[in-house]
Structure formats: structure tokens, C-alpha cells
Amino acid sequence: MDRKEILKGVQSGKLTIDEAAEKLKGFDELGYAKIDTQRKERNGYPEIIYGEGKNLEQIKGIVKVLEQEERPILATRVSIEKGKALKTAFPKGEYFELARCFVLQPMEIQTSDYIAIVTAGTSDVSVAEEAAVTAETFGNQVKRIYDVGVAGIHRLFARLEDIQQASVVIVIAGMEGALVSVVGGLVNVPVIAVPTSIGYGSNFKGLTALLGMLNSCSSGVSVVNIDNGFGAAYNASMINQLRRKK
Predict the structure, then answer these.
(1) Are residues 95 and 125 located together in one domain of the fold?
(2) What NCBIfam families does the annotation carry (predicted)?
């Protein structure tokens, strides 16, 4: 609820002055968490729940607060056990096992422009699904283009038209991370690179891919942290929504 809505609530008698004052603080105090209820007004998107390290009751408590705002709710890095329990507690929500995400009240599709999510291999798909679910939760169309890495680059060219027509491209790769440089040289839209922890010994749990992507010779490439599908999709969503506002 933004400030104008709160003041209108007082004017109409739906909120008391004390209730309005509580909401105008901008956060709900739960003891173990301070829920940022005004983040959407500042940043365009509501607060996201990072599920790892939180117990089930904590996640449920945060969801209950955010649910009252009637806005998209996304919890990332949620285990299967917690995800199934959240689905029971909030039957209208959905748990995406591969993405490890729980979603409630997703936005409707806001634009015909789409985000292409491209992976080098099948082993990168769990990170890609975190990105896809995040993007879809916030009203974006997504095209999934999986397993088109440089080891069989003809597979990439078979989907090149779909990639080139996207408003923004997320490229997800482990090993040496070479795919992002190839894609970056073939498109005229922003490319967001996600290194993954997939690879043999000298991959160093994604560090090799990260350094390779940071040193990409293709222009227009930005890089997020290892396995950070959420961060890539958040940025891609902002880019895609800016196109809609033109």
C-alpha cells in the first residue's frame, strides 16, 4: 500500500490514524525480520524472500505479511520440503521444484517483448529455471532455449532467430563460460551472463566461468554472480519493462 492509498484509507474511515501511522513506517516488524512494505514504490518490485537459511515458520510469516499487499510474492532457494509445506499453507501458490522457487500472486504478462533464457547445457537448467520463474513472476514473457552450447554450436544457430528477436538475453553457462561471448557477438540487445558452478575440477565451482565472462570480448555483456539466476532475471525484467514504457 503506497502513501496515497494509506491517506485515502484514513479519509474513508477504512484505517485508523494509528493503523495508518504503522503502515507509513514502511516496514512490518516480525522480530526475526523487518518486512520492507514500500520497496515496490521505491524500486518497482516488492521485497523478495531469500529462502535459504530461513526456517519454514519464518518464511510463512513473511509471506503472510506480503500477501496482504496483494503483490507478487517470490521466495527463492526454497527446499522441496519447505516448498511442499508452503504449498499446503498457501494453496493458491505454486512451488517450482527445479527452480527451487515458491510463487504467490504472480503478475499478469505486461508486454509482448520477451526475455530469452539460453543455456549452454542441460546441467545449467536449474539456474535457468530460477531465472525463468523470476521473470515470469514479474510479468515477463520468457522463451527457454536450452542446451545450445559451443560444443555443438549448430544447435545455437537453429534457435538464433528467437534469440535475436528478444528484448534482452540471459546466457547461462558453466565450464569455461564461452557461450556468452558467442551470443554477445550475434545480438543487438543487452546480454546478461550467469556463470554456473557446473564443470570439472579446474572450473573451481564456477570461478573459471565467471572470470571468462568478465573478460568477454563481446560488447553489451554484463555479468552477475555464480548461479545467480534470480539476479539476472531481476535485471532483465527491469530492461524489458523499460521497453514497455516507451
Answers:
(1) no
(2) LarB
**Residue 73 is assigned to a structural domain of this protein:** yes
pLDDT (tens, 9 = 90+) of the chain, 246 residues, equals 566 777 777 778 777 876 666 666 667 667 888 777 777 777 778 889 999 999 999 999 999 988 887 789 999 999 999 999 999 999 999 999 999 999 999 998 888 899 999 999 999 999 999 999 999 999 999 999 999 999 999 999 999 999 999 999 999 999 999 999 999 999 999 999 999 999 998 889 999 999 999 999 999 999 999 999 999 999 999 999 887 666
Same domain, residue pair 208 and 118:
yes
